[in-house]
């Protein structure tokens, strides 16, 4: 089978696509014939050797996939052969076939294609867990989303609207303003992080945001913390700026009774797979009801995975980059 292989850490241009032996399932695993895989910012960190969890070299990168079950271990009762499934993995998605834990294989409902199912994984799961599990979003609350044009950001904008909140999108460029409004943002803040606090307060009558979903880090995090309302919550999702990990002055938390929360979505995959399956099915239901959609920015064949990752690295996209391993019907 064909697979993308990381032989040494570095830029996407150093990746190779080569032949590997097909996997066999363990007792609690299934083998998935991969139809599509999503490309995510953490994939770049893994390939570059800067992610918090790094596999031993050589390895196959990729954290989300969708396809069809073609083999199952002796202890597996579900899913069964022929089932269409979406799967979150620590690495390994950029291959034609992947052995995965059966508990992490989530059924894809009729009406959801493979590209959508693959891309509906990490970004939407992260956004839902950040908003609901960690921040406890309540109807009517205002949510500020930094890096709103990214996978997690654009998913969060849609989910806030679908769950009865009011979304404010924060981006560095005006290129995607209209699309963000179409996705559910009531307001879009464009510009340098230094303007974030004043613009947020202006849009919330001086109160600030009940919840901040913070994707960027660096100076954006520092300014986003100043945007949180009294008894508000900020959820740290990532550090897409690539700068220094920000430090928090605890006095600011005390004065405004603020909660700062962290989210590592893959922990739920490993610790609470049933929770991940439940959340994923709710997301699919919202998609089928027309409440959520997955903008796809670009599609690449597996052989062009280095180009797909390079496009994601350059940023500025609104939408998902997808690797397609099968021809679309």
Describe the structure.
By secondary structure, the chain is α/β, with parallel strands linked by helices. Helices cover 31% and strands 27% of the residues. It contains 11 helices and 15 strands. The chain has helices spanning 41-48, 114-119, 122-134, 151-162, 177-183, 196-203, 218-225, 250-256, 265-271, 273-288, 305-314, and strands at 2-5, 16-19, 29-39, 64-72, 84-88, 97-101, 105-107, 142-146, 166-171, 185-190, 209-214, 228-236, 259-262, 296-301, 320-324. The strands form 3 sheets. Strands 3, 4, 5, 6, 7, 14 and 15 form a 7-stranded mixed beta sheet that branches. Strands 10-9-8-11-12-13 form a 6-stranded parallel beta sheet, sandwiched between helices. Strands 1-2 form a two-stranded antiparallel sheet. The chain is globular and about 60 Å long. The model has no long low-confidence stretch (mean pLDDT 94).
Taking Cα atoms only, what radius of gyration do you get, to the nearest Å?
20 Å
Distance between the termini: 21 Å
Oligomer: single chain
* Main beta-sheet strand count, sense and barrel state: 7 strands, mixed
Q: Helix count, per DSSP? A: 11
Percent of residues in helices comes to 25-40%
* Beta-strand content estimate: 25-35%
- What general outline do the C-alpha atoms trace? globular
Question: How do the helices and strands follow one another from N- to C-terminus?
Answer: EEEHEEEEHHEHEHEHEHEHEHHEHE
Average pLDDT, all residues: 94
Alpha-beta classification: alpha/beta
Compute the number of strand runs.
15
In the predicted model, the low-confidence regions spanning at least 5 consecutive residues are none
């Amino acid at each position: 089978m064909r697979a993308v292989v990381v032989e040494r850490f570095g830029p996407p241009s150093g990746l190779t696509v080569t032949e590997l032996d097909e996997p066999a399932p363990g007792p609690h695993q299934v083998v998935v014939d991969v139809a599509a895989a999503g490309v995510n910012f953490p994939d770049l960190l893994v390939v570059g050797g800067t992610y918090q969890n790094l596999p031993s070299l050589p390895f196959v990168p990729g954290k989300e996939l969708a396809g069809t079950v073609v083999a199952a271990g002796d202890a597996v009762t579900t899913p069964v052969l022929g089932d269409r499934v979406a799967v979150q993995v620590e690495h390994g998605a950029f291959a034609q076939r992947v052995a995965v834990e059966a508990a992490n294989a989530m059924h894809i409902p009729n009406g959801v294609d493979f590209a959508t199912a693959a891309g509906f994984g990490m970004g939407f799961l992260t956004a839902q867990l950040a908003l609901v599990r960690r921040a406890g979003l309540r109807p009517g609350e205002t949510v500020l989303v930094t890096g709103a044009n990214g996978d997690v950001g654009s998913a969060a904008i849609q989910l806030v609207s679908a769950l009865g909140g009011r979304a404010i999108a924060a981006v560095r460029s005006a290129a995607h303003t209209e699309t963000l409004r179409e996705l559910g943002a009531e307001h879009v803040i464009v510009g340098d992080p230094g303007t974030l606090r004043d613009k947020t307060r202006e849009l919330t009558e001086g109160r600030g945001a009940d919840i901040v979903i913070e994707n960027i880090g660096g100076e954006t995090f520092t300014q986003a913390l100043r945007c949180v309302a009294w008894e508000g919550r900020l959820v740290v999702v990532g550090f897409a700026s690539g700068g220094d990990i920000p430090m928090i002055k605890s006095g600011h938390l005390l004065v405004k009774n603020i909660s700062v929360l962290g989210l590592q979505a893959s922990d739920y995959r490993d610790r609470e797979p049933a929770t991940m399956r439940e959340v994923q099915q709710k997301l699919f239901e919202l998609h089928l009801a027309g409440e959520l959609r997955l903008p796809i920015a670009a599609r690449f064949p597996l052989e062009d995975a280095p180009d797909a990752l390079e496009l994601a690295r350059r940023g500025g996209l609104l939408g998902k980059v997808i690797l397609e391993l099968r021809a679309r019907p």
